Amino acid sequence: MRIILFVCFVFSFGSHAFGQDVVFRINLAGYPENGPKRALVLCRKNIDIETVELKRIDSQETKALKVERLAHTWAPFESSFELDFSEEKTEGEFVIEIPQLNLRSEQFSIGPYAAWQEDMLGFMQSQRCGFNPYLKVECHQKDGLSFYGKVPDSTLVDARGGWHDAGDQLKYLITGSNATARMLLAYQEYPSQFADGKQADGLPGANGLPDILDEAIWGLDWLFKLHPEADVLYHQVADDRDHHGFKLPQEDNADYGWGKNDYRPVYAATGTPQGLGKYKSKATGLANVAGRSAAAMALAYQIFKDFPEKVDYAKKCLKAAEELYLLGIEKLGYQQGNSFGAPYRYEENTWADDMEWAAAELYKSTGQKRYLKDARVFAKEIGTWSWMERDSANHYEMYPFVNIGHYALWRAGKRKDKALAKAYFAHNLEKIAEKAGKNDYGVGHLFIWCSNNLAAAAATEALLYKKMSGSEQYDKLFQNHVNWLLGLNPWGTSMLTGLPEKADSPEDVHMPFAQILGARIKGSLVDGPISSVIYDNMLGITLSKEDEYADFQPDHIRYHDDFADYSTNEPTMDGTADMLMLMAHLNQH
């Protein structure tokens, strides 16, 4: 069932006209029938709302809704009200009416979400490097020349494949390992929720494997290339010299010293600070990227060993998982991203969560008790440490934002392990809930760069906790963060490109396909709003047009649907991959 909700305004229906005094904020994707359901009414003046009705379209039956004035409001609105219709559990089409103000919302649905996970996989396919099925061309066939590795600098290595990270065309093991592992986990948790409509190369045509596994294999094959020998691991292809405006990947104008559209650097993971230009990373080890890659490989073994045609591939994955895990053990610490001419890089600075994830998956794969013992050590090392404990964080600090290692330990471990993992998650969720209770939207994530990834992480943690405990304690927290990503936010817009159809969603995104080809690829998660303090200090941002959300911008955070704002509306590969499990869950009938 296609589920579409719209934003309702005083005296008009439409998107973001200026000067509106009262607005609805609703999840544009709809509401699952058995979950919490809420909408907001935001008012520029301090008014009272007495009666609100939920009307079913087919029968015209009406029900009075609970209306609660909220205490914590964000500018530019002076009063806000929560409308709760969680008790409505039947599928159907509805509207909300406020007779006092002669307002009626657009029609919306209650029921399972559409299968948007397939659109998200379509976006992942459009980000492929090597053969790109969206363009039907090959790109970056000269990736690349090794630096910092055991071979002399500028030695040719094969690092073709993988995914372009975002609107640029860099490739990172930091994000690629997570995206690969998260796709495999999403399939394990929801195997019946993924279709088979594409071949392995991403072109149309079923091949006997769900498309999510085809995409995971694309990531795994690149991980194999970055790990060509037992003691070798590369972590990044290209750097910010890539940033020379929008370009199609097969026409890359970046010049790293060997000419445009030619060789690019491939950085070896050494666990030491790196950077060929002015800026250096603060790396201390490589256990984060080695551990996450090992977890991905172990998950691949668990899945593909049950496909007769993939048994040998599964064994290859398990061997790589064990090798990568040893690399992490030998160099505990974190590898960060490399920058060249700008200060921005991926500043991941945790690793024990990734090694816990790897150890737990290896224990599940092999039954070797040493892995379970290690997983317990790493679990206590990382504990509850997360951005969820913080009021702020650096860019990609404490990545990948939700500790899948704890969930992996819960899945593979004994009774005490399960209890400990649940306790860690509950602690983090209480921290998020505490922050969420201080704003109308009920969200508790940080507004740093790529804040939408953190909102997805909060929802994921709540979902996994429910799987671990069976408790509905954090259902509302889960739904509030999903709501935020899908329109129940100050701007009334979805944070997924092209979804829901016919609703407000990012259009003028910081992506070459959008800006050069005018293409609107559905299903990508954009960076999301950031704090005004961060935004005001970003380099090189000048909006290209009048801000369509100017009348709705809070004082403390900013979001723009403008290609010139790379900080809030650039689609990301890893954020989109993180959403796959959430969408598969919400698509269940």
Average of pLDDT: 94
Separation of the first and last Cα atoms: 10 Å
Inertia-based shape: globular
- pLDDT below 50 for ≥5 consecutive residues: which ranges? 1-19
Helix content: 25-40%
Beta-strand portion reads: 5-15%
Structural class by secondary-structure content: alpha+beta
Rounded to the nearest angstrom, the radius of gyration is: 24 Å
> Could you give a short account of the major beta sheet?
5 strands, antiparallel
Work out the number of β strands.
22
Oligomer: single chain
Total number of helices: 14
Describe this structure in words.
This protein has helices spanning 116-126, 173-189, 211-226, 287-304, 311-330, 352-366, 369-382, 404-412, 415-436, 451-469, 475-485, 512-517, 532-536, 573-586, and strands at 8-9, 12-13, 22-25, 38-43, 53-56, 62-64, 66-69, 79-84, 92-98, 103-104, 108-110, 131-132, 137-138, 143-147, 155-156, 171-172, 234-237, 264-268, 525-526, 530-531, 557-558, 571-572. The strands form seven sheets. Strands 5, 6, 9, 10 and 11 form a five-stranded antiparallel sheet that branches. It has a five-stranded mixed sheet with strand order 15-14-18-17-16. The protein is of the alpha+beta class and 589 residues long. α7 (369-382) runs antiparallel to α8 (404-412) and α8 packs antiparallel against α9 (415-436). 54% of the residues are buried. Helix content is 33%, strand content 12%. The longest helix has 22 residues, at 415-436.
